[in-house]
Design goal:
Blueprint: H1 3-14, E1 56-59, E2 74-78, E3 84-89
Parallel strand pairs: 1-2
Antiparallel strand pairs: 2-3
């Protein structure tokens, strides 16, 4: 083995693969909740006439919900008076 080949082998042996970067995170408003903040304070009945692009979860007081986080899912919280109280992603 010549000197150049030996040097190349040493250089290649010293190389480590580049570790993968952090997983790409979805944008903070992946579900579009910011555009729907105008729903706050409106009666829950307005939701019946609306269509949403992604998954939607309507949450009422005392309702059991999963604790999984899904950034693309729209959460609409309804209060005891059937008024939209909160619109978030998750």
């Amino acid at each position: 083995m010549n000197r150049l080949s030996a040097t190349m082998l040493l250089v290649l042996a010293a190389c480590e693969p580049i570790p993968p970067g952090p997983p790409s995170l979805p944008p903070p408003d992946a579900c579009g909740a910011s555009a729907l903040q105008g729903l706050l304070g409106q009666p829950a009945s307005v939701l019946q006439a609306m269509r949403f692009a992604g998954p939607v979860r309507v949450i009422r007081p005392g309702m059991a919900v999963t604790m999984d986080y899904s950034p693309e899912r729209l959460n609409i919280e309804i209060d005891a008076e059937e008024i939209i109280a909160r619109v978030t992603c998750g």
